[in-house]
Amino acid sequence: MAAAAQHLPREDHSRHLLMANRYNADLLRDGELWVMRHLVVGNVWISGDPAVLSGVGGSFT
C-alpha cells in the first residue's frame, strides 16, 4: 500500500512538506479482529521542509 500526504503548519501555509510512503504490514486474524504484528514504512520521496512535521524552522534542499 502507498500513500501521499501534504503537511502544512497551521499558522504558516507558505511552508509545506509533501511526502509519499510505502507501507508493508504483517496482519494476523484474531477472531473478528485484524491485528497488525509488524509495520514497515518506507519513504519513496519527499519535497519541502521536513521541519514542518516537528514544528520548528528549517529547510530541505
User: How far from one another are the termini?
Assistant: 27 Å
| Beta-strand fraction estimate | over 45%
Give the uncertain stretches in residue-range form. none
Helix-strand sequence: EEE
Mean pLDDT value: 89
User: Outline, from the CA principal axes?
Assistant: elongated
How many β strands by DSSP? 3
| Helix proportion range | under 10%
Cross-sheet strand order for the largest sheet = 1-2-3
Largest sheet: 3 strands, antiparallel
Number of domain modules: 1
Total count of helical runs of at least 4 residues: 0
Rg value: 16 Å
* Secondary-structure-derived class: mainly beta
Task: Summarize this entry quickly.
With 61 residues, this protein is mostly beta strands. The protein has strands spanning 2-7, 17-30, 33-48.
Task: Supply the key terms.
three-stranded antiparallel β-sheet, single chain, 61 residues, 59% strand
